Amino acid sequence: MKVAVILFNLGGPDARENIEPFLMNFFMDKNIIGAPLPVRWALAKLISKRRSKREAGESYGFLNDRSPLLANSEAQAQVLEDKLNSGKTDTSFKAFVCMSYWHPMADEVVRDVISWGADNIICLPLYPQYSTTTTKTAFSYWDKAKKRAKCITPEIKIGCYPFDEGFIKASAENVSKKLKKMKNARVLFSAHGLPEKIIKNGDPYQWQCEQSAAKIAKAAGLSKKDWQICYQSRVGPLKWIGPSTEGALEQAAKDGKNALIYPHAFTQEHVETLVELGIEYKELAEELGIKKYDVVETVGTSTSFIKGLSDIVEEALGKDAKVASSENKVYVCAKKRLCPPEFKNCPCVGIR
């Protein structure tokens, strides 16, 4: 049997001239800007043009005008593929990277999967925590691309894995490694923020991020006073979930603490970890008088994380895999619904 494992991620520009079209694709997503199409197009055009010349253009300038996200995702895909194929089975695995807002996008990846001759497909987001703005978008683009290509290959979608043992262990290992070199530290679990209205509409992302952080902190042996969660990357005038990463740094400075940031909602390095956290927030920490500031590496291709992903894929293919519905085929990694019932946009609605 030939199994295609599709690793979904956001995407990023591969040249300076592609920063604006990448941002245009991003802000045209109705899960990002929920306005009617004409209004959404006008807003997306305005924001992408401005940000490509200002914030985004400056940030990617630190990275030679291109995002490392694709290369880092491809590295994860290769290591996962090798891990899956190391078992003594008659199943052949091939990992593909599929991006939401820049190449390779769903249409081209579907063609590659068909050309390879996959008998089964596992859709695996590189987002541990589920959100309508990330995983739902990726799955939606994928479903439409499959339909256009008339691809009927059976598939299982991995909804999320915020509590996966491999992810938690790899995260705790990375945090502990940095903590050994920093005394009097407060660990700030910094996740990408979202407008508050998205969470109020039933998105489980914030709850999953908070629960992930608590489990990582426990695995790393942190006491409650030694860590907190916060949210970065605020854009636009809407009220966003908090506390903000800026606010968390300000509080750490007031408390006389050093700051160690771990971006636990990201699984590979890119502009938000390397530039926003690695450069911009570092400058803020210095201005606030924080003596020591550092950023923990993402899980990347760490052995524990890749083993966790491999186990998820193999369990999803197994006879005991639980499926939320035969139509959507969303696999529940924990064999039960993770999120409280008020999160109506959880992918596992219907699972108890």
Layout of helices and strands, plus pairs?
Layout: E1 2-9, H1 19-27, H2 37-53, H3 55-61, H4 69-84, E2 92-99, H5 106-116, E3 120-125, H6 135-148, E4 155-158, H7 165-179, E5 185-192, H8 196-200, H9 205-219, E6 227-232, H10 245-254, E7 258-262, H11 271-288, E8 293-295, H12 303-317, E9 330-331
Parallel strand pairs: 1-2, 1-3, 3-4, 4-9, 5-6, 5-7, 7-8
Task: Walk me through this protein's architecture.
Strands 2-1-3-4-9 form a five-stranded parallel beta sheet, sandwiched between helices. It has helices at residues 19-27, 37-53, 55-61, 69-84, 106-116, 135-148, 165-179, 196-200, 205-219, 245-254, 271-288, 303-317, and strands at 2-9, 92-99, 120-125, 155-158, 185-192, 227-232, 258-262, 293-295, 330-331. The chain contains twelve helices and nine strands. Helix 4 crosses helix 12 and helix 7 crosses helix 9. It is globular and about 60 Å long. The protein is α/β, with parallel strands linked by helices and 352 residues long. The protein has two domains: 2-162 and 304-331, Rossmann fold; 165-295, Rossmann fold, CATH 3.40.50. Strand 7 (258-262), helix 11 (271-288) and strand 8 (293-295) form a beta-alpha-beta unit. Helices cover 43% and strands 14% of the residues.
